[in-house]
Fold:
Amino acid sequence: MADVDETITPITKGDVADANVDKVFRDGIHEPETPAMTNLSLVVARPQFTVTAQEMDGAKMLAGGGPFVPEYLRGDIGAAYAVIQIAKRYSKYDERTNSWVSFDPYAVAQNTYVVTSEGGRKQTIGHTSMFIGAILDAFVPWAKRMRYTYEGEGQSRRCTALGWLKGDPEPFEYTTPPLAQITPKRSPLWESDPDRQLAYFARRVWARLHAAGVMLGIYDVDELEGDVSQRAHRVRDEGQIERLHERLAAAAASGNGGSPEGFSEGAAAALTPRAAAPEPAGERKPRRDRAATPPARKLTSGQRKGEKRVAKKPQPVADARKRGKTPPNAPASRPRKLPTNAGQYALHVEAWLGELNTEEAIEARWRQEMKLRNVCGVVEEQRVVIRTVVEQRIAELRS
Structure:
């Protein structure tokens, strides 16, 4: 068995996302292997679909691209490698330079989205209409450029795509369904520029019918059902979401007389550190005898000798809490430990809802914890459930 160097720490996603070059490329950048040219091989070989050290270096660089790549790709070397393979798949031979040219992997990455469906259990990669149009223009064997014609008005509007291929004198055509029957319609251009969206739809379906090899495995985001985002997203734990529902239902029922509606004040109070109860007035411990002559008091700023010191009237604790501020003499609460998963985050929200007494403070806290929800892996369905509790608390404050 080969010896393992235990002094070398493994590369993490954080190292890649933070562009820790010295750790990610501890052995340096691998140089490409240039095949030797012979009289029998005057044309450079096409890129092979194999895992090479050079491509892995490229995937690491792409995953560490920061704002130049979507959030879901940052730190994910495997997904970045898949983007490189898509870019390499759409490559063409250039006779002028005797080389194979392809799309820029960064341009491909910027035109990809994660589509999450089935309640967070399934994820698919969708592409923009611009990227699909680019690969069709470059790789379909056109004899003439595609043309579009329209008929009908309003929700009955249709588009017909005509495409001429090399070796076929007659055009191939496809006509879309009426505008009203097309779903889903994610882009706002369906309202502001429906003719353009109909052309995108007709071009895409035309290619699936008459140039399926070019479109193989490439889907427009409009073809996929689900939530579209370029943000990092984790597939939810089904057991965790069920436990969250049970916990929220039990908290609502126990704090509201069996009714599942409304905000449960008791659930938040159970998580809030409590101050020690004051001693009864008749059971106070006797104080030690003090000197008959009180110590001389220090003069305050602006006070002359002989003048009486006017004490400031203390602010009532109730008035301070009514304005949503912490009283000056209130005991400092112990900071809570931040949640690390969706279940803990639900309890965390219940706790601070009981402490905030204004709608503005609640909304500000909700916005501030956007990053925390992502760290805890709160998926869309969980967020909706927790947000419902927040809305109920706001409704109570408004009434």
Observations:
- The chain has three domains: 8-34+46-110, 113-233, 236-271+336-399.
